[in-house]
Write a structure and sequence with these properties.
heterodimer; A: 120 residues; mainly beta; seven-stranded mixed beta sheet; globular; B: 110 residues; four-stranded antiparallel beta sheet
Chain lengths: 120, 110
Amino acid sequence: QVQLQESGPGLVKPSQTLSLTCTVSSGSISRGSYYWSWIRQPAGKGLEWIGRIYTSGSTNYNPSLKSRVTISVDTSKNQFSLKLSSVTAADTAVYYCARAAAGDATLDVWGKGTTVTVSS
Amino acid sequence: QTVVTQEPSFSVSPGGTVTLTCGLSSGSVSTNYYPSWYQQTPGQAPRTLIYSTNTRSSGVPDRFSGSILGNKAALTITGAQADDESDYYCVLYVGSGISVFGGGTKLTVL
């Protein structure tokens, strides 16, 4: 069964760029028809879809975050990444990576999540 | 901007039946939105329950079922158990590669 693990700095300063990586294990990121996705959740609040990438490099982003988000994929490392620029305290959240089925967008495999705090 | 609506909270008695809904601020939910449902307990990652409206994910008990009721997607829990007390989120695929989460429903079993 494919497993996902998020990694990256737990603390980012305001106005800087948040960078996270999701490593895919027990399976190839290039195998099958899947999108590789990022979701976040501020403490005590709901889940927010950030965006996704196909292994071809095709991306889709949440319109409310689109100007600040970049998702990329490195198939040689079996990883995909999230960059969120010009962060503020409002970007403090648990960030999850997940696999989404290409046909129906189901988020069927999730990472455990990583907490990112934006603070000086 | 598409807004997906869910009841903020719901309560059910042990052994009872509860239906949570997932709607759109404008328009009706159909199977074309591929509604999916996720269960989340505090401190844990979400768990996939239902996808493509009514397909249970592997290992999900059959007391969980999905459907379209009127103009909304619905998640029904039949014979609620104490460990069903969780937050439940729906997701709709709204097209152009975009998915949108509902605000979530906090379910209490008491």
